[in-house]
Amino acid sequence: QVHLVESGGGLVQTGDSLRLSCAASGRTFSPYAMGWFRQAPGKEREFVAAISWSGDSVYNEDSVRGRFTIARDNGKNTVYLQMHALKPEDTANYYCARSTPYYSGNLRQESGYEYWGQGTQVTVSS
């Protein structure tokens, strides 16, 4: 079993920065991709960013272009989401997810992920 625990969320103002962390525990020895998704009240969960087991990253360019960066530390089994220039529309519950081992499909699709964290709330005030 794998457990994912997000941290780093909070209440910030427009233009501020936050760094989210997601620590994985359990059977984490296989190569896997990690992703960040978010869900705002009344909206469907949407893809934010992901990083493959080889280190390649993809982003939701429409919403986070140039502002968010995903990174991973395999030694610490942790993935990070650095967020800059936050906007009120970034307000959401942010979830990290771990893919199936050796996943090589579309990292933007939720179907590629088998474990999810409980989420951390990010609120950006105007």
List the helices and strands and how they pair.
Layout lengths: L1 E6 L2 E4 L4 E9 L7 E6 L6 E6 L5 E3 L1 H4 L3 E6 L4 E6 L8 E8 L13 E4 L3 E6 L1
Parallel strand pairs: 2-11
Antiparallel strand pairs: 1-3, 3-8, 4-5, 4-9, 5-6, 7-8, 9-10, 9-11
Sheet having the most strands: 7 strands, mixed
What's the rounded overall pLDDT mean?
93
What spatial form do the alpha-carbon principal axes imply? Answer: globular
- Euclidean distance between termini CA atoms: 40 Å
Assign a percent range to the helix content.
Answer: under 10%
Q: What share of residues are in beta strands?
A: over 45%
* Tally of contiguous helical segments: 1
Uncertain ranges: none
Estimated radius of gyration: 14 Å
Describe, in plain words, how this protein is organized in 3D.
By secondary structure, this protein is mainly beta. It is 3% helix and 51% strand. It is built from 1 helix and 11 strands. It has one helix at residues 61-64; strands at 2-7, 10-13, 18-26, 34-39, 46-51, 57-59, 68-73, 78-83, 92-99, 113-116, 120-125. Strands 2, 4, 5, 6, 9, 10 and 11 form a 7-stranded mixed sheet that branches. A 4-stranded antiparallel sheet has the order 1-3-8-7, with no helix packed on it. A hairpin with a 5-residue loop joins β5 (46-51) and β6 (57-59). The longest helix is centred in the middle third of the chain and has 4 residues, at 61-64. The chain is globular.
